[in-house]
Description:
Layout: H1 2-23, E1 33-35, E2 41-43, H2 44-60, E3 65-68, E4 72-74, E5 80-88, H3 90-95, E6 101-108, E7 111-119, E8 124-129, E9 135-136, E10 139-140, E11 153-156, H4 167-176, E12 179-182, H5 187-193, E13 199-202, H6 207-210, H7 213-219, E14 223-226, E15 241-244, H8 247-261
Parallel strand pairs: 3-5, 11-12, 11-13
Antiparallel strand pairs: 1-2, 3-4, 5-6, 6-7, 7-8, 8-9, 9-10, 13-15, 14-15
Helix pairs in contact: 1-2, 4-8, 5-7
Amino acid sequence: MTNTLDDGIAFAERLADEARDLYAPYLSAAPRTDIKPDRSLVTALDQAIEAHLRSRIESAFPGHGIYGEEGGTVRLDAEYVWVLDPIDGTAPFIAGIPVFGTLIALLRRDVPVMGLMDFPATRDRWVGAADRPTRHQGQPCRTRACGQLADAMLTTSNPDFYAPHELPAFQALRERTRWRIYGGCCLAYGVLASGRTDVAIDARLALYDYAPFIPIIQGAGGVITDWNGHPLSLDNPSPRILAAGDPARHREALDLVRHAMA
């Protein structure tokens, strides 16, 4: 698997470079926006980037599956499946807030074994892979220790994303942590991997919204699961995720979330 993983990382980095090139003309001007049937936002650039990435994958790895936000799924029963979100954080992208990024993951037998998060506006990039240290800007990065949850910095993408019955879980963590940062989108999980924050919680997500976070956070020493503590994968594409840089703080946060949802 080592050679396949090496090839996958190198290929994903090339895809991210090409996605940056497609972004470049749109970073300083508001793009045209459409609304999808689920009321989420989409731009022509979302669709163009994913179409390009899918074409490159089909050419390089015709036996691999693809699971993309815009283009749907093919060959999900393949040993290797690429998961794509061309612009994670379309609303921040439209608003010109530089927390949006391109997310690329590679699953092996339904489990994420490689993840890449690339941020064209800031030119940050995190890459994680199974049994390897996570890298930020090419250098190893680590989560940080957090002695108690009361000292933790918590992130969530947007409290509006929680259904009414999910809000108590977020509220439980909000009340037990020292600081809260809202609106970080996928960037929140990169900075968690780099030891800048401590706990992240989100709801109403799809696998393509977080698949790269899994090897990135794990490779940096953190823990990421669903709200029941179960591993996230193609077999468990939970819409609710919880991550922490310190495994002890993940256990503590998970207990709070479970109790709030009981």
